[in-house]
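FAQ
Q: What does a multi-component entry look like?
A: The components come first, one per line:
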Amino acid sequence: MKEIRWHGRGGQGGFTASRLLGIAAGMFQDKHALAFPSFGPERRGAPVLAFTKIDDKKIHDRSEVITCDYVVVMDETLITPTIIKGVKDSAVFIINSENPQRYEILKSYKVVAVDASGIAQEILGRPITNTAMYGALVAVSGLVSLEAAVNSIRHEMKSSLIDKNIEIVNRAFEECSKSLTQVNN
Amino acid sequence: MKTNKIFISGDEAAAHGVRLSRPHVIAAYPITPQTITVERLSEMVESGELDADYMHVESEHSALSAAMGASSVGARTFTATSSQGLLYMVEAMHYASGGRYPIVMMNANRSVALPWSIYGDQRDSLSQLDSGWIQVYVEDAQEALDMMIQAYKIAEHAKVLTPMMVNLDGFILTHTYEMVEIPDQDMVDKFLPPFETPNKMSFENPKNMAFSSQPDDNTEFKYQQNKAMFDAIEVIENTEKEFGEQFGRNYHGMVEEYMCDDAEAVLVTLGSITGTVRVVAEQLRARGLKVGILKIRYMRPFPEKEIMELSHKIKAIGVIDKDISFGYEGTVFTNVNSALAKSNATIFKKNFIGGLGGRDITKAEIEKMYKDLLAGISTNGQKTVEFFNLKVETND
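Then the predicted structure of the entire assembly, as tokens:
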């Protein structure tokens, strides 16, 4: 089972991203998935978590996620010392940042940075970074295919939002794939 | 069979189960974590997808009272609540069961105040075992949907005519999204015919709601309610069998035994915790430990026969209670222990109290429970109640 933790602020769409990933896995790749928010009240702007669990077989485990494989940070102001709690040593952090080197706390982990705010601002005209981070996660993890990710957006989002968000996912996917290739070279 | 699977929450799955059951009247008041269910139903009524009257009421007490009124004239009715809302309904709950109105209610299991908490445990519904309602607890969103459909068939059966509560763990099920198969309406219609009650009130056949009784006849009313609840066991089993044949999903009736055939230590579960316990039990089995699970599905009527039979096959039993009856023990344990006493089984017993007010129950804690049970076998039959993962020091 792969476990993904999404960090965002209320209103940034972190929970939507966790569900999009679940939809891509469950409806378009014949895998099994659970997606859930950090339980409790929600407030705009407050730090919120969301989770996705993905597996090839039915997921029975309903306990909290304490061994993350991927941590997606949609807003880099959320990177605090506690962010490394509940993650595997092999966890990959995918962060919305132009300057990832400055995060000492993440030094022992694999970190992939993407300028999600820039992509969202350019295409959407608003700094809603969830789908850019989704595209980045798909590129980095290969948990679902790009096609399944695009299909999940077509399935779930309001029609007025579909085209732009597909463009965002494609762009973030491309940029992350490129930077991964550079790292590997 | 054509598959139609979508990625939805437990609350939404429950709403689809209700929609497919074609209720005439929905009367409900929103409360976290049940709200999404009644919101979806209200949207379905608004869009015309569901041909029902959605009654906006000012409280849970009114919601259930309105459902009773509609049920008395032959309408199929639905309500939903949670926690404080359920407790606010309590007076009406006894009216509904005493009046034999086969209302179906979804309850999102949530802690009760004080301290105020919106998070999950099972203290709300377990405090209502004596209200005369059938109580079933589900493990995942699919079971939630399927049990809404089954609930109408069971509650409305002429031998039962008893209201039924379908319990989903708050947040863990209500707010978790997963793949859920949405059955075809045609199949549900075939399985669940329209509601017809012998007690229908009409202008041609007026009756009395909220009747009174004298010492001379009250006991006979209560005897009949009790008998109907026992008669429900066979109806539950037949309904389950028929559902399994038509829809291809089987939940095993009153209880599900998992890996119990040669088990020494069995954990008794209620609701969504079953899933996590399955994972731990499988891991321990792979390491050669003989462990199993008894998933209790129905708390009323109670699966006494199944527990008595199991008790002769095993050496230790533990009950996980997301509940505590202060001054005694967990309520699930009290009920299980009563069945064990009747079977004269001398096995090691332990009651694990935890998961209160939404606290996570981890796989490590469950593994420790199994180990406690296996270690207790040689101590023969003593009963202990333990709060696990307690974060304060005690003198106990």
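Q: Is there any commentary attached?
A: Sometimes. For this entry: Residues 2-184 of chain A form a domain with the Pyruvate-ferredoxin Oxidoreductase; domain 3 fold (CATH 3.40.920.10).
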